[in-house]
Amino acid sequence: MHDWISELGAESLTDDRISFDTQNPARQALDGTVVTPLVQFGVLDVKGADAEKFLQGQASTQLTLVDGHFAPLTMFCTPKGRMLANAQLLRVAEEHYRLIMHRDLVDSLAEHLRKFAVFYKVELATRQDLALIGLIGQEAGALAEVRLGVAPPPHWHQAGDAETQLLAHPGPRQRLLALLPADRAADIWRRLSDQATPVGNAVWCLHDIQAGLAWLTAQHRDALLPQMINWEALGGISFKKGCYTGQEVVARAHFRGQVKRRTMRGQLEGAVLPEIGCPVVDSREKSVGEVLAAECDAYGQAEVLVVMSTKEDMGPLSVAGQKLKLLKLPYPVERLDPETLATL
Predict the structure, then answer these.
(1) Which of 25, 31, 225, 264 has its CA 20 to 30 A from that of 252?
(2) Which of 105, 156, 75, 83 is nearest to 331 (CA)?
(3) Average of pLDDT values for 166-173?
(4) What is the C-alpha to C-alpha distance for residues 331 and 234, in angstroms, rounded to an integer?
């Protein structure tokens, strides 16, 4: 457990899961405002005179859009177009960019990028000295403005300064992610928790599922095309920029419509959470997909994101012995250019 979190009375369930003794935390996020340590995320900084040029050749983002206001989704691929990590990218200062992704992928992505970084004036640094805190709910924006002194930005944008950044993520309730020095985190937490209920980070992960937003983990590293997690529908791919590693395969899959698996949202008739990678099976017990994320909702039922075949009429589906009911995604599965999102 991180040092600042150990002061809060939280229980560390795993390296990426924190819990508090709060009754029905998912309901708390719907009815009020909650605060949570986002220990599932890690941070990788890219700094130097060639930082923009370096990232332009590796990330799916058009780097000229990353201007200290727009903080788009992005991803990094192998030459075969398989994702090594997906992330949110922000500019902290001139020649200083920051990537937020699942913590399990920070070191492997840094190792991958260092193979190319030797040709540029750039440094890569994993940031263990930063804390990520999430706010969800009706008063999240007002609370952030009063306690952090930062007005909330639009979705996939950033506000703040070089020390503290505030990011807005989509979901069924307002969601804000604060990124700040770890040595300030305990004090900021106490100020936020005066008016927000502490909950475990499973609530944030649930809202990611309900937003149709899948964060790649080590389980699916180098296994999926970005379109398989609907990344172009979330504005995570620029089809207007030049070449980057894997770009040719990603563009071909888009323009030729060759994607045969997609991320879908669903609910299980039960409360048993399947593990990441658990198969989705049809009535003949044939695997037609697998689980990307799973959390229990405010009513005690498991909600999931699954990547599965786009074939229609596959009949009854199940996961871990529980019937799977597919739900509507909160966005159309069609191309959304980050150039459009940047103008919000």
Answers:
(1) 264
(2) 156
(3) 97
(4) 8
Structure tokens at 295: 């959390």
Helix (H, G, I), strand (E, B) or coil at 212: coil
Burial of 329 (0-12, 13-18, 19+ CB in 10 A): middle
Q: What is the pTM of this model?
A: 0.96
Give the span between the Cα atoms of 17 and 8, in whole angstroms: 14
Beta pairing partners, 167: 158, 177
Give the CA radius of gyration of the chain.
19
Q: How far apart, in whole angstroms, are the C-alpha atoms of residue 39 and residue 53?
A: 30
| Segment 56-94, tens digit of pLDDT | 999 999 999 999 999 999 999 999 999 999 999 999 999
What is the C-alpha separation between 27 and 195, in angstroms, rounded? 16
Alpha-carbon distances, residue 37 vs 3, 327, 332, 333 (angstroms): 12, 28, 30, 31
Instruction: Compute, in degrees rounded to 10, the torsion defined by CA atoms 326, 212, 279, 317.
Output: 0
Tens of pLDDT, residue by residue over 245-274, are: 999 999 999 998 879 999 999 999 988 999
